[in-house]
Amino acid sequence: MSSPVSPTASPPRLFDRARLARNRDRAASDFGNYDFLKARVSSDIAERLADTSHTFDRAFDLGAHTGQLAQVLQDSGQVGTIEAGDLSRCMVERMAAGGVTAREIDEERLPFAPASLDLIVSALSLHWVNDLPGTLVQIRKALKPDGLFLGALFGAGTLSELRTSLMEAETELTGGVAARLSPLPGLRDMASLMQRAGFTLPVVDRDPVTVRYGSPLTLLTDLKGMGERAAFMTGTTRPLSRRGLMRAMEIYQDRFSDPDGRVRATFEIVHMSGWSPADSQPKPLKPGSAKVSLADAVKKAGSR
Questions:
Q1: What is the pTM of this model?
Q2: First vs last C-alpha separation in the chain
Q3: Is 201 helix (H, G, I), strand (E, B) or coil?
Q4: Residue 132 needs a FRET pair 20 to 30 A away by CA distance; which of 108, 123, 262, 266 works?
Q5: Which is higher by pLDDT, 144 or 183?
């Protein structure tokens, strides 16, 4: 029998952060042709920020890619100054060329001083960190009292069609299944993590997005262009054979195509928001005594 894991043990390192940086480096020059999900989520985060009447002197866009979200927020009138950061040197260079103040930054080791920022945002990047609970704690600690975190990442329902097709193909050809797509958090997982990280008034919700493609291979091209190719640590999974890939594409076409022959791909966007604790915030009511929704409470907190 194996010994129990210490509660202070480091989480397993599933993702190779250097490999992720290389994936984004390769995607940087042509990212504008594949940034439709990033643009959608950036717009959604900006709308959620507009639901508060707060203004934020210092803000940071974490995992910014080419900086769309930073630019949107800079133009919103709610943010004084905003910086951006990404793991990819080439993405940072793209941001700097576009006039965004940016630097290389690793979400697993945030360089921020405690209570130094009023707002932290992150669009479609945090699903690649090995220690998501730890990163959320670092974000909360970097916020000033009554500071706000708004983030979005890919959730558990993302690419369910591709995941199913790969599993069925490998089971059919080899009798076993290897990890091909990243494990992603569900809605309840994120709600729990936000609470554990110490955020007040946490809100978590999902936005399922269906994208249609001419073929499953076009989806794979898009994932490469987004910088979202697999970035597992070496040795954690065996390579996928060309035969396995082609069989998976056949299954995908057969199982998940519409009458016009185009195939569906699901992306589940999980949005999260939370405030850094402050004495001025509304105190939680006793269980069962709530008179307004949690989302309304967040808006009220932002109107102070």
A1: 0.87
A2: 55
A3: strand
A4: 266
A5: 144
